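Convert to structure. Protein one:
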Amino acid sequence: MTHLRFYAARALRSEPMLRSLSVPAAELDSALAGRRVALVGNARSLARQRHGTAIDGADLVVRINRAPMPAAASHGTRTDWLALAVRLPEADRLRLHPQRILWMSPKRKRLDWRSAHSPGFYLHPLESYRALMDRLGAPPSTGIMAAELILRAPCAALTLYGFDFFASQSLSGSRSIAQVPHDFAAEAAWIAARASTDPRLSVS
């Protein structure tokens, strides 16, 4: 798709045109099949842990948004996939160098041309976003959307790191829990309920 057509599709919110840039969900399922996945959140508390070796030891490492990584000992070094809901500054793109970008946000006007035309690009369907929002009673965070997406696939295991549901706030910003639109108590309950029935899911 040319730049002009892309920006026209984005401005007009033409979902079919934007969807044409995305790989199908079946391709993600195939890439995740049988693999041990580390999903790394941005909780400040992760910086006090030493999970870096375990994160890098996963078969696939998925990070979220700008993915601050203050130390290899706490955060590891690899980024295989990046789940995005914000525009990615070029410095972060070069630092993270993800093999695949997953655009999770319903805000299509934030989607940039380079991300949308990157290899293996995936656009999360609006209907999936809305269904999860209905279950949670609030807009879902990028992390919870990524967890649900991964668990839909036949992965062998999914371990969450840096998910404390905003108890320690986020490394990627200074907003308080009152300034974000998510219901983290509902998200924590969703994860706990899912982990109780799906042995693939764990939180470290």
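Protein two, convert as well:
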Amino acid sequence: MAKINLKKTSYAGTNWLIEIVCLIQTKGNPKWIQSVPVWERSPWVETEIGYPILINQEGPRLISSHLPLHLFPKSFFSSKAKMIYVIRNPRDVLVSGYFFFHKTNLVKNPGSLIKYFEWFLKGN
């Protein structure tokens, strides 16, 4: 069994599943995972970076999204595409989100977990 370095990226629900699917797609060969960042292997369709990558990729493609199902085109559901829907425990989402935003400059740093919890409950 191949060893994979998982220290380069934060792994929780979605990213962890992408790693598993990538290993299935390559029949367990970790070279693709080790050489291509997760955001290029399974781009987020609703982002300015991810959409162009997806449009220019040859199939089969892995696509990530936080979009609700009703925003996907109807043609998606009559295609041969397969979907894995990840549902996580809200407590895990809270803790994962807190540490993710605490490490990045994407949003104002929440400071304390209590403050982030208040933001979380308000849907921010």
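Residues 90-122 form one domain. The longest helix spans residues 90-103.
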